[in-house]
């Protein structure tokens, strides 16, 4: 159910931001679509300083714009977290020169400014070998080897997840789908 504040908000800001901003790549899709290798993509973490990230300034700009809420990517499909977590070492806190919890700063600044605060968190994690083994059907060893090459991971996904699925394709009844 949509909350009343959201119906009245009219304008919100969505920040899609992460280590991919170092080279200006298209988030995780840069390696999922074979534009660069996984390893090359992850090299961007070494240059991710967040030196110009000022959450209070962002909050001031959002408020001045008339927006009532903002959403920030906390983890995209690349698996890189903008927050500190014990789940993985793949975070800007542990693996980049930024070395700080950017989501905490963002949430604190948004709340302080009286703005509704959203977090975008992708359950998909293309860095998790277990996840990729299920998604592609490749072994973890094969996935590790692929990480050094430009590989189109998206072409390995099951038919139901491919964007090129056509309207005339016959849907597979749920009870007959392989899991």
Question: Can you offer a commentary on this structure?
Answer:
This protein has helices spanning 4-9, 29-32, 38-42, 55-65, 92-95, 102-112, 129-136, 140-146, and strands spanning 12-15, 69-75, 116-121. Helix 4 packs across helix 6 (102-112). 31% of the residues lie in helices and 9% in strands. It has one domain: Glycosidases (TIM Barrel). The chain has a three-stranded parallel β-sheet with strand order 1-2-3, covered by helices on one side. The chain has eight helices and three strands. The protein is α/β, with parallel strands linked by helices and 179 residues long.
**What do we call the CATH topology?**
TIM Barrel
Uncertain spans, ≥5 residues at pLDDT below 50?
A: 160-168
Instruction: Please identify, by name, the CATH architecture.
Output: Alpha-Beta Barrel
The averaged pLDDT comes out at: 87
Strand order of the largest sheet: 1-2-3
Number of helical segments?
Answer: 8
Strand content: 5-15%
Give the domain tally: 1
Radius of gyration, Cα only, in angstroms? Answer: 19 Å
Largest sheet: 3 strands, parallel
Topology at a glance:
Layout: H1 4-9, E1 12-15, H2 29-32, H3 38-42, H4 55-65, E2 69-75, H5 92-95, H6 102-112, E3 116-121, H7 129-136, H8 140-146
Parallel strand pairs: 1-2, 2-3
Which characteristics define this entry?
single chain, about 180 residues, alpha/beta, TIM Barrel, three-stranded parallel beta sheet, 8 helices
